[in-house]
Amino acid sequence: MKKILAITFLVLLIDQASKIYIKTHFELNESVPVIEGFFNKTFVENPGMAYGFHFGGIIGKYFLVILRIFLIGGMVYMFKKWLKEGASNYLLVPMAIIFAGAIGNLIDGMFYGMIFDSGTVYDASTDRWIGYGGVSKFVPFGHGYSTFMKGCVVDMLHFPIVDWYVPDSWPIIGGKHIEFFKYIFNVADSAITVGAAFLLIFRKKAFPNGLEF
């Protein structure tokens, strides 16, 4: 259990520190090159899932927050079961990384609207998420830009490895903008992805008796 808690704490610390720094030092949509042509710090806010995906307006956001809570609760139950059964680190370590990532994004969605003075908010009249100007600041708990469960996830990691405008002379795709990887994400998203990748790679060692719940 100590190993799971240590991994969870470390990933959460890096995740939340990076998000708080970006939100309190960058304006929304501001982008700063870190490695020219490869890695940018680009601040966006995401009301939905990982890598910028979202759906269903404010109802969809509530659904995702509640779903994350149930998933995290389910993972706590599974950790107790796996520890009792003597599960290997090939299972426990990746799951701890995924667990931390899920909690990291849950914190944003549940509380960021209550502790920052500005953020992206939902406009029911236009069914759109509306951004803001300036740099966010901390405010007393409960006096933020929104209420419980209405905060947005902070994303900042951007790897535009391919950023190319196709020449107009090219047939069919001429003039189009091609970008890979265009999605902007955060440490929590990365943790979930890396943890899932480790489980896939070491699945035979993680689940020597098959996938059991």
TrEMBL record:
<keyword id="KW-1133">Transmembrane helix</keyword>
<feature type="transmembrane region" description="Helical">
    <location>
        <begin position="183"/>
        <end position="202"/>
    </location>
</feature>
<keyword id="KW-1003">Cell membrane</keyword>
<comment type="similarity">
    <text>Belongs to the peptidase A8 family.</text>
</comment>
<keyword id="KW-0449">Lipoprotein</keyword>
<dbReference type="GO" id="GO:0006508">
    <property type="term" value="P:proteolysis"/>
</dbReference>
<comment type="function">
    <text>This protein specifically catalyzes the removal of signal peptides from prolipoproteins.</text>
</comment>
<feature type="transmembrane region" description="Helical">
    <location>
        <begin position="59"/>
        <end position="79"/>
    </location>
</feature>
<comment type="pathway">
    <text>Protein modification; lipoprotein biosynthesis (signal peptide cleavage).</text>
</comment>
<feature type="active site">
    <location>
        <position position="155"/>
    </location>
</feature>
<dbReference type="GO" id="GO:0004190">
    <property type="term" value="F:aspartic-type endopeptidase activity"/>
</dbReference>
<feature type="active site">
    <location>
        <position position="189"/>
    </location>
</feature>
<feature type="transmembrane region" description="Helical">
    <location>
        <begin position="91"/>
        <end position="115"/>
    </location>
</feature>
<dbReference type="GO" id="GO:0005886">
    <property type="term" value="C:plasma membrane"/>
</dbReference>
<keyword id="KW-0064">Aspartyl protease</keyword>
<dbReference type="InterPro" id="IPR001872">
    <property type="entry name" value="Peptidase_A8"/>
</dbReference>
<keyword id="KW-0812">Transmembrane</keyword>
<keyword id="KW-0378">Hydrolase</keyword>
<keyword id="KW-0472">Membrane</keyword>
<dbReference type="Pfam" id="PF01252">
    <property type="entry name" value="Peptidase_A8"/>
</dbReference>
<protein>
    <recommendedName>
        <fullName>Lipoprotein signal peptidase</fullName>
        <ecNumber>3.4.23.36</ecNumber>
    </recommendedName>
</protein>
<keyword id="KW-0645">Protease</keyword>
